[in-house]
Each structure stands twice: as structure tokens, then as C-alpha cells.
Amino acid sequence: MTALSVKVVGWAGSFPVSRGVRAARQWTAAHLASLSWDDSAADTVDSVLLSVSELVTNAHLHAAATAHLVLTWDGRCLHVSVADADPRLPGPRRADADAGATSGRGLGIVTALADSWDIHACHGGKAITACFRPYAGSGPPGGRAGPCRS
């Protein structure tokens, strides 16, 4: 039997509504800067930061509570998880939704930017986890391979 070796690095932070989304985005940017991604991952960094903004905004807006943000880099995928205390799972945007509405597009944005994402109930609330693969070493941009498992 061959031993499996996996190296993972991760960070966790809590962002109450009073600290705002900007604090979560800045915290994330600081941790992304510590990863050994090359310049070809710039689009991935932008996608991660926008997704963090959307997911933390959703947690603050719908749960009206602290957003718990966890970043985990396993050498292949950056897993971005945002958990909140609201047990209601989000549904797809309704087809009859107002096209001029200024909200209701957060998960659509995450779907467009992440390589994969999922949602699950946890600890009386929910967590949404999005996976991002930087370009370096994983194929061309837009080459959305199969789902990352968190």
C-alpha cells in the first residue's frame, strides 16, 4: 500500500456585519498574497475576491449575522467557505425576477466564477463552499475541470 501525502494550508476568520464585507475581502487578499501563485493566477485572485464579497454579503443580508470565512489551499484548489447561522438554503433565482433588481445575483456570480461550488447545512446554519483552481499548473483559463471536493 502506498502512503498518500497531502499538504494543506488554511485560514479562518469571522466577519460580523459591523466589520463589513470590505474587511473580509482585504483579509482574503492578504492570505492569497502569501500563496505561491504566479502572475497567470491574477484572474483567479479577482474571481476569489469578488466571490468572497458576494458570499459574505449574502451571509450578512440573509442571516443578519456574522459570516465565518475559511480559506483552504490544497495545492490544487482554493476552497472558499462562508458559513452563517441561517438554516434556509438559497434557491435558484426565479425566472420572473425583476431584471432591474439590484440584488439576487450573488450565487449566479459565484457560479460563473468558481470551478465548482456546493452548499450544505451545518451547525444549525449553512455553508457555501466554492473551489477555484489557479491557472498555473492546472490548464488554460476557462478549462473548468470536474468538481473539487471539499
From TrEMBL:
UniProt keywords, alphabetically: ATP-binding, Kinase, Nucleotide-binding, Serine/threonine-protein kinase, Transferase
InterPro entries associated with the record: Anti-sigma-factor_SerPK, HATPase_C_sf, HATPase_dom
SUPFAM superfamilies, sorted: ATPase domain of HSP90 chaperone/DNA topoisomerase II/histidine kinase
Molecular functions per Gene Ontology: ATP binding; protein serine/threonine kinase activity
Domain Histidine kinase/HSP90-like ATPase, chain residue ranges per copy: 21-131
Name the UniProt record assigns to this protein: ATP-binding protein
Organism: Streptomyces vinaceus
